[in-house]
Design goal:
The chain is built from 4 helices and 7 strands; from the N terminus they run H-E-E-H-H-E-E-H-E-E-E. The protein has 142 residues and is an alpha+beta fold. It has 2 domains: 77 residues, Defensin A-like (2-Layer Sandwich); 33 residues, no CATH class. The strands form 2 sheets. A 4-stranded antiparallel sheet has the order 1-2-4-3, with helices on one face. Strands 5-6-7 form a 3-stranded antiparallel sheet, with no helix packed on it. Helix 3 crosses helix 4. The longest helix is centred in the N-terminal third of the chain and has 20 residues. The protein is elongated and about 85 Å long.
Length: 142
Amino acid sequence: MVGISEDILQYERLLERLYSRLPSKSPGQPIELPQLEVVHVGLHTQIKNFKEVCDRIRREPRVVMRYLLKELAARGSLDESNNLIIFGRISSQTLNALFNRFLMTYVKCSTCNSFDTVLKKLGKVWIISCLACGAETPVKPV
């Protein structure tokens, strides 16, 4: 019986030592994205800060553009300063709702809910790789 209680004490000391060496778990800072700056020019819709927003979420502007245009069933392009131009009048509420859906599907880590991720393509499979916890989650192609 004495050997068992000593083993338990040794285990508790080792456990305390382990927890003291772990980095403190701080809640992840929520990602602060500026709202999409939507401007209507004639029959076209332009997102003025598109490149800046894509840089903040670590996604290629062409990938985000492809998702938005596919969801809107519209045509569009990037201009020389990487602003998104959509050929048609789309409301800012619709664009922001679609962009938030993109964030939840292709940016947010499903394990730790961090937005600090990168999107990789391995063969035909798209994977969200979390920089905070290291988890890798496959997602459907963009």
